[in-house]
Amino acid sequence: MRVDPAAPFLVRRSRWQSGLYFAFAVLLLIFAAINLWKGLADGNLPSAAWFFAALIAFYAWHAAGQFLDRRPQIVVDAAGLLLAAASPDPIPWQHIRRATAKTGWRGRARIDLEVDPETHARLKLGQRFMGDPIVRLRGRPTGLSILTQSLDRDAQAIFVAMQRHWPADDAPPHSAARPSSTL
To answer: Which of 2-11, 29-38, 47-56 is predicted with the least confidence, judged by mean pLDDT?
Structure first.
């Protein structure tokens, strides 16, 4: 299969992983409902049971939202890198100073980016514990990471797409470094 180099590269949430999270949330909801029902029948229902049931309901709502969301999370094209969870506008290539693909702990791959301070200030970065794929890069003031374990494409495929769309002239001096891989 031949890939059109001008075609945008789309990355969505992994259907099987978000489906697994949702199935687990439904299972937890069933257990919480049984616990509440038994507690009401016995006349002994501590407030902690209601708290944990509400917490599980929130988790299920969040997991359902991620499972049903089929919008692209990342779009790589000639205009730049669109990180939908972080910004409605793509990050132009000349605003990306460095891009590195890495294999992290237990083989989990990610792409680390360093952007200019103005771009970093306008990005809304997510939280790792909430399953967000775009998070702050620890130890780098203008860095961010694309965590790929919850996405339908792996880090290497995203990185290759970035290399394919990266401008040939490599942007103005000191504002961008061509992506390099450590995978």
So the answer is: 2-11
Count of alpha carbons within 13 angstroms of residue 30, beta-carbon side: 6
Instruction: Identify the residue whose tokens are 């061509």.
Output: 178
Cβ pair 82, 145 in contact under 8 A: no
Q: Are 113 and 102 in contact (CB under 8 A)?
A: no
CA 67 – CA 48 distance, rounded (Å): 28
Compute the C-alpha angle 63/64/68, nearest 5°. Answer: 120
What type of residue sits at position 24?
Answer: F
Q: What is the pLDDT of residues 94-148, one digit of tens each?
A: 999 989 888 766 656 889 999 999 999 999 887 776 667 888 888 888 999 998 8
